[in-house]
Structure formats: structure tokens, C-alpha cells
Design a protein that fits this description.
This protein has 430 residues and is an alpha/beta fold.
Length: 430
């Protein structure tokens, strides 16, 4: 290829939307394209791919090129994407997959099935080795959707469909963040990378410590570095919040039970976050205020996630920790390294009314209208944080003002945590 043709080809590729998206994703001047001139029939392969730095951190990425054959998946595109996955694996760097396509090259017949399978296998191979983020900019249907949701985190433009078929409305349970438009989706991916390690042998990037927000309304805001809590899956579920934050500049995973009983959708996002943190050795901080689970399956999912995780785990009981919730997310059942409680916390094997009737039936021999108050009084006197500490159910009682310092010290001590587990391929509980 002559210099003139090379210059012309570069100009054609640089004029496409995919090239503009991916160069804006990477730090200015850092993007190095790979397989620039790979052909798919008469056109260039339907994706732009390469590596560079994002916020100064190494990263691989590809963006399907909707301006070339509608970004359709082909054997040529699959070969290009496979190379990106292989490089990310060899060099231990995250990969961001940007989906902007109208389907696959059906004219390639069964070769298209192999192409899809190649990309899906590549994504599966990297699971738990390097972080993966999918950014869905337009409708992503069929096998492409399966590959997209195989990533650790999915960021989707709100109007884009993510489903197995055109008639399927899809499910938002697999989506970590919903963006208003393409620019916001790409920016969200860049922000998320700031909390992720390059691979499962490295640590998450540190940042300058920022003091806590003293005006925050919730205990999490008062504990973590100010404005560092980035919420995930916040569009689904109402009984739990999950995401990443920083304490004294270091990344932690956050799970916060919001009261009531934990629902199915919330159990899924709790499990996703805990499992990711475990795979990449990010500490998990759990703030508990919950009366239980809405069902057995919900309880089993959360219990297994915590029990399997060997990363550093600290639980803080901020309100109620009733029965199965305590067992699943704190103490010996969850294999936590440290369980703390605020002074006003309640630790009980049963809900207030049942606990009072079973443990102190004589206290409930009052008019029906007074039973709720009697049960509440019994719980405060007999199922308090201080009683839990006496019984060894929690390790310590701390105030909100002390919590940030105590957690920072605990996380420092747990930096070198190592746990040897029994040899097995994987758990069968789920």
C-alpha cells in the first residue's frame, strides 16, 4: 500500500463515528490503533480497536463502527476483537467494549456463528482476570447482547435495547448504569475505570485522600471520602444500594441495606458487586439495616456470595440486623473479618414482635394497643448492640464520628489478608 493510500485510508477511518468515540474515550494522543487496515469484504473491518490510557491508566477498547456496514459482526471483525481480548489478557489491562451495531453479516452464514462464538469465548476467558466494561450505544440484540452482558459492568444508553430478540424488551437487572446519551455513557465508563484494578493480581488505583462529607445525611456519606461513592444498579431495587467508594483514598466496595426486607432485584446487585470485589481483591464494606429477605432464593443468593468471598469484609450494623440478614451479611456465617455496630443498632434472631413473644412472653401481657411499644422496649433493653457485644456477636461498638477512623485502620490491617480455600472448580449453590 502506497503512502498516499495509507493516508487516504486513515482519513476515511478517522472520519467515522466509531473512531471519534474511541479517541475521545482515551486520553488525548494516547490511542494506538491495531489492525487498522484489516478488511471485511470490500470494506474495512466493522470496528475500531486499540489501546492507550484512560485517566492515565492502561486500557484496551474496541468500538463497533456503525458507519461501516452498520457495524455488523463478521469473521473479520471477530478476528480483530479476538486480538484485542488476547492483548488485554497478556498485558493484564481492562477492556472496554463499545457496542454500536445493527446486527451481523448474515451473508456469511455459518461463519457468522463462529465469529460470534469466538468473541463470546474471548470475553468469557477474561472473566475474573481483567475487568470488563460493556458500553451499549444502540440496540444490542441476540448473541451480541449475550456477549455484552458477559462483562463485569454494563453501561447502556437509556433508549438502547439490550435483549435476546427484537420482541424481547430486555432486562435492566444486568445494567450497572443507564446514561442519557452516548457521551454520558462513554464518560461513565471512564469514571468507573478509576475504581478498578488493571487485573486480578494488582490493586485498585489509589487517589488523594479527601475528607468525609460532614453534612451527609447517611452513614455512608459520613464515612467515605466526599463525593467518592459511585452507585451501581441504582435504577433497580429499593432495599439496597451498592457501588464503589474510597476511604482515605483507597477503593472499597459498598453494600448498604436500606431497611425493610431485601428484595430479589437487590440480592442480584449485591451478589454482582461482592463477587466482583472478591475476584479482584477489593474490600467489601457492608452497612446493615434490614429485617430480613423476601424469599428463600434471595437469602440463599446473598448468603452464598458472602460466604464464598475471601476478600476483606467488614460489616457495620447501623439499624436492625434480624435473623437471616445477620447470618448472611455479618459474623461467622458471612466470614467477615470485623463486625461493628452503632450504639443504637439492634441484633435479633427474630423481628421485634416475635422476639418479644418468644423470649419474654410475660412482657407482652398488656393490651393489644400497647404490645408494639412493649415489644420495642424489650428489644432495646435486651437485643441492643451492647448485648450483642457481650455475647460476642459483634466485635465492637462505634459512633458515627469514630467509624471512618476505625474502618481506615481496619482496612490497613487487612491489606495483606490471605485465605486458603478447599480445592474445587466452583460452588454449586446459587
Amino acid at each position: 500500500m502506497s503512502i498516499q493510500k495509507i493516508t487516504q485510508a486513515k482519513a476515511e477511518i478517522a472520519a467515522t463515528s466509531a473512531y471519534k468515540i474511541i479517541t475521545e474515550f482515551f486520553d488525548e494522543g494516547s490511542f494506538i490503533e491495531i489492525d487498522t487496515y484489516a478488511k471485511s469484504g470490500d470494506n474495512y473491518a466493522e470496528a475500531v480497536a486499540g489501546y492507550g490510557s484512560v485517566n492515565g491508566l492502561p486500557c484496551y477498547a474496541f468500538c463497533q463502527n456503525i458507519d461501516v456496514a452498520n457495524g455488523a459482526m463478521s469473521k473479520a471483525q471477530a478476528a480483530k476483537l479476538k486480538k484485542v481480548y488476547e492483548l488485554a489478557l497478556k498485558n493484564g489491562a481492562p477492556i472496554v467494549a463499545i457496542y454500536d451495531s445493527l446486527g451481523g453479516k448474515l451473508k456469511e452464514g455459518n461463519e457468522l456463528l463462529t465469529a460470534y462464538g469466538t468473541v463470546l469465548n474471548s470475553a468469557s476467558t477474561l472473566s475474573g482476570v481483567v475487568p470488563q466494561i460493556s458500553v451499549v450505544l444502540s440496540d444490542c440484540v441476540g448473541t451480541s447482547a449475550i456477549t455484552a452482558v458477559s462483562a463485569d459492568f454494563v453501561i447502556k444508553v437509556k433508549d438502547a435495547k439490550l435483549s435476546i430478540s427484537p420482541s424481547d424488551d430486555g432486562c435492566l437487572c444486568s445494567v450497572a448504569k443507564v446514561a442519557e446519551d452516548k457521551n454520558e455513557a462513554v464518560s461513565a465508563a471512564k469514571e468507573l475505570l478509576l475504581y478498578l484494578p488493571s487485573n486480578n493480581l494488582s490493586t485498585a488505583p489509589s487517589a488523594e485522600e479527601i475528607p468525609e462529607d460532614t453534612n451527609a445525611k447517611c452513614v455512608v456519606g459520613k464515612t467515605v471520602d466526599e463525593n467518592s461513592f459511585t452507585k451501581l444498579y441504582d435504577h433497580i431495587g429499593k432495599t439496597a444500594k451498592v457501588g464503589f467508594a474510597r476511604i482515605q483514598g483507597e477503593v472499597v466496595g459498598i453494600v448498604k441495606a436500606e431497611g425493610g426486607k431485601i428484595e430479589k432485584s437487590d440480592s442480584k446487585k449485591i451478589t454482582k458487586l461482592v463477587s466482583f470485589c472478591d475476584a479482584f481483591s477489593i474490600p467489601v464494606l457492608t452497612f446493615i439495616d434490614s429485617e430480613g429477605f423476601t424469599g428463600l432464593g434471595v437469602a440463599t443468593t446473598v448468603t452464598n456470595a458472602y460466604a464464598e468471598a475471601t476478600t476483606a469484609k467488614i460489616s457495620v450494623i447501623t439499624g436492625k440486623a434480624v435473623g437471616p440478614v445477620y447470618i448472611a451479611m455479618a459474623g461467622a456465617g458471612a466470614m467477615t473479618d470485623l463486625t461493628l455496630a452503632l450504639p443504637e443498632a439492634v441484633v435479633s434472631p427474630l423481628n421485634e414482635m416475635a422476639a418479644a413473644y418468644i423470649l419474654a412472653p410475660e412482657k407482652m401481657e398488656v393490651p393489644v394497643a400497647e404490645q408494639e411499644a412493649a415489644a420495642s422496649k424489650f428489644v432495646k433493653e435486651n437485643l441492643s448492640a451492647f448485648k450483642a457485644a457481650e455475647d460476642g456477636v459483634i466485635e465492637n461498638i462505634v459512633t458515627e464520628q469514630e467509624l471512618r477512623t476505625v474502618l481506615g485502620q481496619a482496612l490497613t490491617m487487612l491489606e495483606s489478608k490471605r485465605v486458603n480455600t478447599l480445592p474445587k472448580k466452583h460452588s454449586t449453590i446459587g
